[in-house]
Amino acid sequence: MAQAIKSRNILGAIAALTVLLFGGWSGAVIGWLLGTGAAFIACQGKKITSAKTGIRLGVNAGLGLGIWILIASLVQGFLLLPTTGQSALGIIQVLTLGGAGLVVATLSGWLMGAAQGLGPRRQRITVAFLAVILITFPLIDQLADTNWTATVIQILIFALLALGLNIVVGYAGLLDLGYAAFFAIGAYTTGFLSSPQINLEWNFWLVIWIAAAVAAVAGVILGAPTLRLRGDYLAIVTLGFGEIVPVVFRNLTQIQIYEPISKIFASLLGQPKLAICLVGCDRPFNLTGGEAGINPIGRPALPLIGTFQSGKYLPWYYLVLLLVVLSVLMISRLRGSRLGRAWAAIREDELAASAMGINLVQTKLMAFAMGAFFAGFAGAFYGAYISAIFPSVFDFSVSVIVLCMVILGGLGNITGVLLGCVIIMAADRLYLPQLAQVLKSMLNTSVLPNVANPALRDFLATSVDPLQMRLFLFGLTLVVMMIVRPEGLVPNAERQAELQSPDEESLAEVRSL
Amino acid sequence: MKRWQNAIFYLVIVYLVLLLGPVAGLDIPRIITEIAQSPASLVQQLLVGLVNGAIIAIIALGYTLVYGIIELINFAHGDLFMLGAFMSLTVVGAFGIQDGASLQASGLAMLVSLVLSAGVCAGLNVLTERYAYRPLRNASRLAPLISAIGVSFIFINLGLFWGGLRSFFPIMGANAASPKSFPDLLPRIDILEALGIESNIEFTTKDLIVLVVAVVLMVGLQLFVQYTRLGKAMRATAQNREAAKIMGINVDQIIALTFLIGGALAGAAGLLVGLYNNTVVFTMGFTAGLRAFTAAVLGGIGNIIGAMLGGILIGVLSALSDQYLSSRWTNAWVFAVLVLILVFRPGGLLGENVQEKV
């Protein structure tokens, strides 16, 4: 019971924060999303005999959330807006917005609660609910004028990355700190094959598979030297690769290759013209565009929709959603397969696994290849979506952010990883920028005019910027998660036992599994 | 038969290097002609590499000490060094010293900033150990590593924030993220010229001072670890923590002491880099940290002499690569060295290869 109340308050606080920051109809949208979620959580671990009990729990949860939203709407409309330099809203407007949030949250809770009361079909219904939410989200988003779809597309791109990294780190237990390299390889493959800059413009639907395959091959190539290394050395070598790959992409701007034997003869004979030139003979070949990157990159096209446009998010959203759903299906099937069980075995104990006849080389390489495959997917989609790629996008912090998602959500658990991805990306790309904006206007209108000390004033104006705190927050997440809850928010039972100190209790837990 | 196969394999590798190397600056004929044309610039690069390598070695000592005692790659160490450089910059700025100040004034400023930045870094490192690593000492091996990556990000962000405090420290300049220029405090007298030797090689008192300070720190550390009671306790703890505990050594204190020493060295290195390269930026910890870690691994991680040797080798390698390959590729070459050592000789040059125990 205490747990349920705690999670309800957390959801309520998130909803209230959303309303405070975004205002407008965001209360209704977040009420819809979190109301459904709150009702689902409220019904977890309870015996729900009839739809009635489910509805009671769901409405309770939804109503609790709605009250948070209503109060936040009042605060936002009457108190917050004036301090940021906008005029306060009228009482009717505030009540409409807040009331809409309350009603929507309660209704969503009611619906979800009722669905949870359906007995054995409970799980299928939950998935159907999730599907409906995901499919209608961009439409509702447009209706409510919250403009979250662009961010959600980015969240889904990172969801692909997190799912892939989860194979390497979560399933096979190989800590990969250079995962962004495969993302870069996927993106650059797409760039090479479908950009007028290189004079190749292949169809996106073909290129995305090639990119994923190239990334998988790169996974094998980069994974092969690391096979003999254990734990932390492996992490450092992958980190080295993760640093080398962007450097290579950054610097492949002047390629001119001569056949070496002919070149040596030519220089011995003193006639450099005899050397056979292979690439970039007239002038050095510019493969990657250096810091400026590859731009533009071809976009996907479909018969009825035509070429995807940059400002129109709907087709992009459904495409990346499809990719994520496909990946989730593939990965959850992989997990239970022979290969998936082999990964679990080498993660638990490499020596024992090899003694049981598992081919370590093959299994580890498959983990790298599969993990890189999904990063290649993500890279190809990213390249086409942004329509330009730069080497600076793929630096170490991307690898760490994705690792952060996997660890926050729960190593080796697909639901957890997706949850971690949504939390981190939403905080990073949605809430932090908006918070920065609100704080800035608040400082400019209410605080700065009242500060007399010029040094303090300059400090407030330049250093109070939540966007500058991103790395701090990621770092803090990693440290706190490692100390407080190393198994993540939604733990995987085996992994949990492994990460906690090996006392008798948890060993018994593992044995009973 | 086997030998033929091997020979063909190596020939193919050589061919590939000759074919693809020039793209990354590894054009062997060109390098040979360049060296033949101007041997002095080779010596010059070796000297630059030696001084830079000495600084890298000091940072590498922090990695190697910590790894030797608790087998943790202290990922945050490079960024701690960056914070040390910021601390020195702040102190020098607070003294209000500009380029070409009198020797006494700048000497005092350097001494105070050495003490303060070493002290602050040592304190930070001990706090980090206490709150981010000690709770994880019995957890799985990867947990403290991940925690260290987190600490590293926190430090980087701290550096960014610090660099933005222009309202309190004017020396930080207008932009938080941009490189800050560190006043050129060390005297710059060409030693060879002062001795009356004509040459194209420049070796100034600035290089000499940095080199001497670095060597003094390293020798001091080696003497401390070899000949004092505490050093003995450190070695005992590194060898076998349980046995050391039984012998009455306060293991927690010894580990904290190790972090204290490593942190102080990082702070000192921060000051030295500021004085030598005259620029400080919040991202410099990452690259420097990786170079230093590479140095520690190259020499054999856990081995103090090895870290010094590795640091100098990496410094020389980077300097040569800057000159003869291409400075754009230097980082890639350093990482390539790291990968090659870890793959082919994980024990490093002076370390032993440890067999995995069941």
UniProtKB/TrEMBL annotation, chain A:
One of its GO terms (molecular function) is branched-chain amino acid transmembrane transporter activity. It is found in: Cell membrane. This is Branched-chain amino acid transport system permease protein LivM. The keyword Transmembrane applies. Pfam families: BPD_transp_2 (PF02653). Keywords: Cell membrane, Membrane, Transmembrane, Transmembrane helix. GO terms for cellular component: plasma membrane.
Automatic annotation (TrEMBL), chain B:
The chain crosses the membrane at residues 7-26, 46-68, 80-97, 103-127, 139-162, 208-225, 254-276, 296-320, 332-351. It is a multi-pass membrane protein. It is found in: Cell membrane. CDD domains: TM_PBP1_LivH_like (cd06582). GO terms for molecular function: L-isoleucine transmembrane transporter activity; L-leucine transmembrane transporter activity; L-phenylalanine transmembrane transporter activity; L-valine transmembrane transporter activity. InterPro entries: ABC_transp_permease (IPR001851), BCAA_transport_permease (IPR052157). GO terms for cellular component: plasma membrane. Pfam families: BPD_transp_2. One of its GO terms (biological process) is D-alanine transmembrane transport. Keywords: Amino-acid transport, Cell inner membrane, Cell membrane, Membrane, Transmembrane, Transmembrane helix, Transport. Belongs to the binding-protein-dependent transport system permease family. LivHM subfamily. This is High-affinity branched-chain amino acid transport system permease protein LivH. It comes from uncultured Synechococcales cyanobacterium.
